[in-house]
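Methods, example record. To illustrate the input and output format used throughout this study, we show the complete record for Stage 0 sporulation protein A homolog. The sequence lines were provided to the predictor; the line carrying structure tokens was produced by it.
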Amino acid sequence: MRLAFVDDDYGEIKKLTTMIDKELHGTVYSSCTKQLFSTGETFLSVWKPGMYDIVFLDIFMDQLTGVDVARQIRKTDASVKIIFCTTSNEFASESYCVDASFYLVKPFSQNMVHTMVQKLIKVDSRLSLFITLPNDRKLYLRDIIYGEYINHKIFIHTKSRNDISFRMSFGNFLELISPFSFLISCCKGIIVNLYEVINKENNCFILSDNSTIPISRRKIKEINNVYADFIFEKMKDKMLNDEAN
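The corresponding predicted structure is encoded as:
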């Protein structure tokens, strides 16, 4: 899981990251990566869709506010979770307009951070799905960006940047991941995680790490249908979660 923190108060963010680490310790999310930005402008200068799973935004910052940054994010990424950090509830209505997942009020408390983490885990329980590799290592499926078969080995490129390789035939690997419809083989020797697709153009998938994966000509119609179904189900899940909250 990839986290970004945008806040001009370094001390408060360090407190928050410590609290989050405490909540995630011993869970499948404990290896998350964190990046800190002191201004909205600095964050937006490097921002790309799919770059982070969660963005924490301080609302009261010089020049661009957290709400301004959130609006820019939503122009290109509807999936990333946005969490506002602020000393006031004044901007609660604006947080709704940019589909914020949570509203953390400063000073942060461990109880509030616990509530936030539990809510996020409940919303996306699929983050805990895993398969067991030949060496008994767990591979968490939502950590996968894509995988490729080279020289009788499977190479898995992950969001946590802990890339994995193991010896297995591509056919056996496809059988292993077959219950999970968001992992698909779009061309010979390659699988992609549809959750990590940020764009589709010229019969290629553009992934969250900027990799470009071609779609086999023989599979274009099939893959287009699978991807359309995935997007539809993702939108339906989001609507159900919004209604539940």
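Annotations derived from this record:
Residues 2-123 form a domain with the Rossmann fold fold (CATH 3.40.50.2300).
The CA atoms of residues 8 and 181 lie 41 Å apart.
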